[in-house]
Design a protein that fits this description.
The complex is a heterodimer of chains A (290) and B (419).
Chain A (H helix, E strand, L loop, with lengths): L1 H31 L6 H18 L4 H27 L6 H24 L14 E4 L2 E4 H22 L2 H11 L1 H6 L4 H26 L6 H16 L4 H23 L3 H15 L10
Antiparallel strand pairs in A: 1-2
Helix pairs in contact in A: 1-5, 1-8, 1-9, 1-10, 2-3, 2-4, 2-8, 2-9, 3-8, 5-6, 5-8, 6-8, 9-10, 10-11
Chain B lengths: L6 H27 L3 E7 L6 H20 L3 E3 L2 E3 L1 E7 L4 H13 L5 E3 L4 H13 L4 E3 L6 H4 L5 E3 L4 H16 L5 E7 L2 H16 L3 E8 L6 H10 L3 E5 L2 H13 L7 E2 L7 H7 L7 E4 L8 E2 L3 E2 H12 L5 H20 L7 H12 L3 E3 L2 E3 L17 E6 L2 E6 L17
Parallel strand pairs in B: 1-4, 1-5, 5-6, 6-7, 8-9, 8-10, 10-11
Antiparallel strand pairs in B: 2-3, 12-17, 13-14, 15-16, 17-18
Helix pairs in contact in B: 2-12, 3-4, 6-7, 12-13
The chains are: A mainly alpha (290), B alpha/beta (419).
């Protein structure tokens, strides 16, 4: 029973990490209609930035996460118009062009990370690293708990932004129809660029927590891109609300499969679940995907 | 007698002179180079594995520098200097195969020194076989490399299933009655899986009770696995993987309030990067090393293992690991085989086949340890002679603790603060 409860906690906390990773990705897909291959790259760079800030300036990840958020908001805002330009180009299949473009960005990030930090894995230390809360036989790692709370905070913040602000209204209008939003006076290009900025900021901030929980090296990007796709497909592409349910479901599924069936089969079963979801409910768990 | 300048004669003589020089130059070139042994190194000098690739290069280069200080390899009383050529595998098997082909065709190398990774080695093997160029690999550790029985490829480092198997037996013997149970986990990918398989075999051979054996996909969250280990709490936990998995395991275990009584891993544990990244958590962790500077081996070129370590440190600024040592020892194998072959370079295809046979018959002692290649079985042409040392990290230092002839300190068991 102890192991069952511990697995429940493990699964929920893994879910938190997955939600952090995917929520921005969903937003950018919903608004820009871009499947951003660089999602893992932004996660990796967020982790490395935190690594630099903690080793060079002694800034704890819980403080540096705000700096990372601000920095990547600006970087994403700067890159946003390029993504928008590629996505709305008049060449054939701009959606595929955008996919290739973000893949190129991802390769550039990976190469840059190899050059700057070499291939070795880096640990990012925090005051909460290795700290835990004991509730009887259950151990709750505080770093993972923080990531879970951060996931809730991200989600709440995003909902407030989307449903309680004029900017959010413009974003929702864009998600429904770019042309109509433009006709209603929304500056489509500018809003799209800010959405990309918010996405990169959220994802890089998630990268800070993920690097603190695990570690970071130039090859982790591919893995996180894959996980972001898993959650996004289960949530329904473009559905921000679905990410909460899908992230938790996948986290619990992975934890229980690894504990009671075998860790070897965890990805296989996760893949199988995605396959079934695409067949049975292509709009995701909440039926709100595109 | 008239010495009048004749334009016709001048043109004729110029033409004849140019022709003679053009035709004669290759002969002069061959004559000038026939006293050198051309060695091609295929390794990853760029890409993801460039760090390890450069370690192999350091090892090979150090040998070439040392032997050239003596005038080169001695064959039938005459010394032939070594000339090194490099092909960048770019950390990709296909690029490695291309680089090997270029070295053989364009640079006309007599012998190849092998790549850093097993994947690239497997891609280069058919090239060395096709052109009948012997290849001595100072780094490849996957047992898959030797399954196809490569006629021209020889591996200096025992395959990982052998090293982890032997190290677990050595560890169990050292612990005696103090350890009765073990669990083995590993990443479900070629190298890591073979490492885990070796540990499992070692557990079975040493009579320990195997509580669990579990493989997991690369990139998995380890909290479920660590929770299970915490619940069964075996006396020894063995992990098959690479450095990032070890770091994640240590971090996850710490976050879940679990510290195994003995934690043994393989590649990467002894690296300065691992010790730096895990900090004080690395204390007490056990690793496996095919070679350490404390081992009681020696040869004529490098002296003792400790002398080699000092030499490498003075040349490169860092202490060598077993990969560098094995690469330098690859040169010693070539030296010995060329001496026994007794034929001056350049070597044609037939002579290179004879050289491969001479390498196959190697039976020497070096600073790296004994070298002898298996002539049959699943580890064909792999140097199966070395017995790995079990090392333990103590206050940031890597200390050999077993077997007895390699030990430089007591094995700390259980790790202080263990669950």
């Amino acid at each position: 029973m102890d192991l069952f409860l511990q697995t429940l906690v493990n699964g929920i906390l893994i879910g938190g990490i997955l939600i952090c990773l995917t929520i921005g990705f969903q937003l950018t897909f919903g608004v820009l209609h871009v499947i951003d291959f660089a999602v893992g790259g932004w996660t990796m760079l967020g982790g490395y930035t935190a690594y630099w800030l903690v080793t060079l300036a002694g800034i704890d990840p819980f403080i540096s996460i705000f700096l990372v958020f601000a920095l990547f908001l600006l970087i994403g805002r700067g890159l946003g118009p390029l993504i928008y330009h590629v996505r709305t180009s008049r060449y054939a299949r701009p959606d595929l062009m955008a996919l290739a473009f973000t893949f190129g960005i991802f390769l550039f990030m990976r190469g840059g990370a190899l050059w700057l930090w070499s291939y070795n894995s880096r640990s990012v230390d925090s005051v909460l690293s290795g700290q835990f809360l004991s509730l009887g036989p259950i151990t709750i790692p505080l770093m993972r708990l923080s990531a879970f709370l951060m996931a809730l905070l991200f989600s709440l913040g995003l909902f407030i932004l989307l449903y309680r602000s004029r900017f959010g209204m413009a974003v929702r209008a864009l998600a429904q129809n770019h042309d109509h939003a433009g006709l209603m006076g929304v500056d489509v290009k500018r809003v799209s660029a800010w959405v990309y900025g918010i996405y990169t900021a959220l994802t890089a901030s998630a990268g800070v927590l993920i690097a603190t929980i695990y570690s970071v090296n130039p090859s982790v990007g591919v893995r996180y891109t894959l996980f972001a796709f898993f959650v996004a497909v289960l949530a329904g592409l473009g559905s921000v609300g679905g990410v909460l349910v899908a992230g938790l479901a996948l986290g619990l599924l992975e934890a229980y499969v690894a504990t009671y069936i075998g860790a070897r089969y965890s990805l296989l079963i996760v893949f199988g679940t995605l396959y079934l979801t695409l067949l049975v409910a292509p709009k995701g768990v909440l039926g709100r995907g595109i | 007698m008239s010495h009048k300048f004749s334009r016709r004669k001048f043109l004729r003589n110029s033409l004849l002179g140019t022709g003679a020089m053009t035709l004669g130059f290759p002969a002069l070139k061959v004559n000038a180079e026939e006293h050198k042994i051309r060695v091609g190194v295929v390794t990853s000098l760029s890409g993801a594995n460039r760090f390890g690739g450069n370690l192999t290069r350091r090892g090979y280069d150090l040998w070439a520098e040392e032997i050239n200080k003596l005038g080169g390899i001695e064959i039938e009383g005459k010394r032939y200097p070594v000339e090194m050529f490099y092909g960048d595998a770019q950390s990709r098997p296909a690029s490695g195969a291309d680089a090997a082909e270029r070295l053989i065709i364009q640079d006309e190398v007599d012998v190849l020194f092998g790549p850093y990774t097993s994947g690239v080695t497997l891609a280069v093997q058919p090239i060395s076989q096709k052109y009948r160029v012997p290849m001595i690999s100072g780094s490849a550790e996957s047992p898959n490399v030797w399954l196809a029985k490569p006629a021209f490829n020889f591996g200096m480092i025992p395959a990982v299933d052998l090293t982890t198997d032997k190290s677990m037996v050595v560890l169990a013997e050292n612990l005696g009655d103090r350890a009765k149970t073990a669990s083995v986990i590993g990443v479900d990918e070629p190298f890591s899986k073979e490492t885990a398989e070796g540990f499992r075999k070692g557990v079975e051979e040493s009579g320990l009770d195997l509580l669990s054996y579990e493989l997991f996909p690369a990139g998995s969250d380890l909290s479920a696995i660590v929770s299970k280990l915490k619940s069964s709490n075996p006396d020894i936990v063995a992990v098959g993987g690479h450095e990032d998995v070890f770091i994640n395991f240590v971090n996850t275990a710490k976050a879940l309030n679990y510290k195994p009584k003995a934690l043994i891993m393989h590649y990467g544990v002894t690296s300065a990067a691992f010790i730096k990244e895990t900090g004080s958590e690395s204390n007490g962790i056990l690793g496996v090393s095919v070679w350490t500077e404390g081992l009681p081996y020696k040869d004529e070129l490098f002296g003792t293992a400790s002398d080699y370590s000092d030499l490498s440190f003075s040349r490169w600024g860092t202490r060598p690991d077993y990969t560098e040592a094995a690469c330098s020892a690859s040169g010693l194998v070539l030296q010995d085989a060329a001496r026994r072959l007794g034929k001056a370079p350049p070597w044609d295809q037939g002579t290179r086949a004879e050289l491969a046979k001479a390498i196959e018959d190697t039976d020497i002692e070096t600073f790296y340890g004994p070298v002898g290649f298996a002539k049959e079985g699943s580890h064909f042409h792999n140097n199966t002679k070395p017995v790995p040392a079990v090392v333990q990290i103590k206050s940031g230092d890597v200390v050999p603790v077993a077997p007895e002839n390699a030990s430089k300190g007591e094995l700390v068991y259980p790790i202080p603060g263990s669950t």
